[in-house]
Each structure stands twice: as structure tokens, then as C-alpha cells.
Amino acid sequence: MSVTPLYKPRSDRPMYVAGFMSGSGTNLIRILEYQRKMVDRLDQAFYEVTVIFTDRPESAAEKIGSDFGVPVLTNDIMAFYRARGHSDKKDLSLRPEFDERTVCMLTGYEVDFVALAGYMSVVTEPLFTRFDGRMVNVHPADLRVRAGDKRRYTGDHAVEAAIKNGEGSLRSTVHLVRREVDYGEILAVSAPVPVRWPDGVAVEGLSDPANKQVLRRVADEHQERLKRIGDWVIYPRTLELLSQGRFAFDGKGALHFDGKPVPDGIVIEEESSADAGGLPL
């Protein structure tokens, strides 16, 4: 069966990536560091972050752009909403106008893929139309785990939910961004991060309202570990694999990796992203 790569490598340049961020941009920093390591080790980078986009002028985007020599575009989402009489950004009926402006701002950067790296705004139709099947995100949960026909650990509190449900380990997932949040095709999942329980606390007790703060603390600690062992490893590596044309769809829309079907993506078991380029899977 013939397959079509999500990205077809070019001989004249690497895959151009736009990094979208709203806050500290730690995931984007790791993507940029991995890019540099590829150049240092291989004299080339298979992908290149050519522009950083932020929806919050108070984010770390300008510093990151300065540190890595990447131009920064800012489209202030709260200024956009305040100009329309809103004190928050909950009205998604206005979002397509905002995203259309963002698409226009990216004109001229020849963006091949968008990497959402701590981007805290829901994306809407203009971005889906412009980058159909070419937006990726990393999520702090194993999206392969299901409850019936639904993915069990989606949304903002996925780590807390997984710990509360008694999962023995956690994983990060890199996935394509689709219209249903956290339901895009799974590209890669990380090595497992074992759940560590505080002394004197059992999973059964975490449902007790008295342990709410304990659960929050445990979730925060594990999310930080998962970021370091999961997100920061698999996100840049997945972009590298995409840029090499190794992910593809067949005629029925099923995902393949190196010509083989991978309905649940691949597992990247590497210890760290310190070694860039050509790492075996």
C-alpha cells in the first residue's frame, strides 16, 4: 500500500517550524537546543525553528528569540478580546478572527509545521485550514489509554487524573493537533515515569477532600518529572523524525512509521535528547 509522508524532505533546506508559546517556553527551548545539537554533531539540522509566535507579550518569547536568533511575532490575545468588550478569552466565536491574523503574520516564513510548545489558546479553523495535519503538540499523559471509546487522560489535569486513578506510571504523548482537543493521531509516547507515593499516602486516600493539597503537590512533582523525562525528550525527537519523512498516512488515513502501521504511534525510550540525530528506534 502506498503512503504519503506527513512531510516530504527537501534537498535545499530543512523542515521549517513555527514554535507557538504563551509562557516560559521550556518545551520550545529544548526543541531549539536539540536543533543546535544536530548542527554541532551532523553539520546540519533536519528541522529549523524559523519563527516564534506568542499570544502573550509578557511571555518569554522575546528572550528565547534573542538567545537563539529567531524572529518573534506577537499577537496579543487579551488585547484582541478587550478591544471587543471581553475581559477573558472564553468566547471562541471570536477566535477565528484572531487566528486569521496569526496566519497572515506567518506569511513569508514558509512554515512547514507548527509546534505548539506551551501554547495556551485553543486553535480554530484558520490555523487548521492553513496547517492541516501539520500542527503538533505534546500532552502530559499516555493518550493510548482509553475509557470505552474515549481517551481517558485529556485536558489540563491529566497528570492529576492519572495519579488519582492509580496509574503506576505516566507517559507523555506527541500528537497531531485536530479539532477535538487531545484527539489527534498519536505520533510518539515517552518512556514510562514511575509514580512515587509520599510516605503514609495510598491511592485510595487521594479521593478524600482532606488530601486535595497532597494530590495537587504530588501531581505537580510528577508533571515536572514527566516534562524532563518525557516532553523534553520526545518532542524534539519527533520533530526530527517528521522532518526525515518517516511518518506517513496510507490511503485510508492510517498512520505509518518507516512503512509500517503504527495506530498508537511509536515509543521513544531514549534516556535524554543529548544525542541528536540518527538515534535508533
Overview of this protein structure:
By secondary structure, the protein is an alpha/beta fold. The protein has a domain at 1-132: Rossmann fold (3-Layer(aba) Sandwich), CATH 3.40.50.170. Helix content is 31%, strand content 21%. It has helices at 26-42, 61-68, 77-82, 95-105, 125-130, 158-164, 212-243, and strands at 3-5, 15-21, 47-54, 72-74, 113-116, 135-139, 146-147, 150-151, 169-170, 173-176, 186-190, 193-194, 247-250, 255-257, 260-261, 266-268. The strands form 4 sheets. Strands 4-3-2-5-6-10-11-16 form an 8-stranded mixed sheet, covered by helices on one side. Strand 7 and strand 8 (150-151) form a beta hairpin. Helix 6 (158-164) crosses helix 7. The relative contact order is 0.16.
N to C succession of SSEs: EEHEHEHHEHEEEHEEEEHEEEE
Helix coverage percent: 25-40%
Give the termini distance in whole angstroms: 23 Å
CATH superfamily of the domain at 1-132: Formyl transferase, N-terminal domain
What structural category characterises the helix and strand content?
alpha/beta
Q: Name the poorly predicted regions.
A: 272-281
What gyration radius follows from the Cα positions, in whole Å?
19 Å
Layout of strands and helices, then pairs:
Elements: E1 3-5, E2 15-21, H1 26-42, E3 47-54, H2 61-68, E4 72-74, H3 77-82, H4 95-105, E5 113-116, H5 125-130, E6 135-139, E7 146-147, E8 150-151, H6 158-164, E9 169-170, E10 173-176, E11 186-190, E12 193-194, H7 212-243, E13 247-250, E14 255-257, E15 260-261, E16 266-268
Parallel strand pairs: 2-3, 2-5, 3-4, 5-6, 11-16
Antiparallel strand pairs: 1-13, 6-10, 7-8, 9-12, 10-11, 13-14, 14-15
Helix pairs in contact: 1-7, 6-7
